[in-house]
Amino acid sequence: MNDEKVRIYIKKGPIEIEIEGEQGYVDSKIEELGEKYFEKQSELIENEEEEPIEQPNKDWTASEIYSKLDKEPAKIYRALFLGWYLEKIDKKEDFNKIEIEDKALKNKIELGKNLSRDLNYLREKGLLKEIDKRDGEPTYYLTRTGENYVEEEIGIKEIMGGEIDG
Q1: All structural domains of the chain
Q2: Which residues have C-beta within 8 Å of that of residue 123, sequence separation ≥ 6?
Q3: How far apart are alpha carbons 60 and 135 in whole angstroms?
Q4: 3-state DSSP of 15-34
Q5: Where are the beta strands (DSSP E) in the chain?
Q6: Which of 8, 23, 88, 136 is least enclosed, having the fewest CB within 10 Å?
Q7: CA-based nearest residue to 153, from 74, 89, 92, 96
């Protein structure tokens, strides 16, 4: 038998266990005490005030995603990125110039000086589709080509991993 003494300390919530002894003894006690205490831990801490935990499904802000980009996109493609954000994260079916400007302002993302021209260029390139008017402005949605451009060329897919909804 191994006579080497070991010490192990475990703390989980309000439960603290410290065991010292030979390896076999420590292993058996850990298993015994773990079954006895850790399975009931939720009952033991039910009335304790819990620390806030970051929610796994919390949405990314546009500025969080933008700050993680390897290379800052040209101003014209920032409008495309923000359109993508409005659709994918904010779950809008479409967007217009005013909504892009508002999202850029709130997230401190600088756009080109002539956003109407930029949106028209993106439409001509087949990255946006103009569908209607709202508040006197044309409304758009991203084409599949536009979505792919943002996710692949701008690099959003790499940043967000599997968190992009279709």
Answers
A1: 5-44 (no CATH), 62-163 (1.10.10.10)
A2: 129, 130, 140
A3: 27
A4: EEEEEEEEHHHHHHHHHHHH
A5: 5-12, 15-22, 95-96, 128-134, 137-142
A6: 136
A7: 74
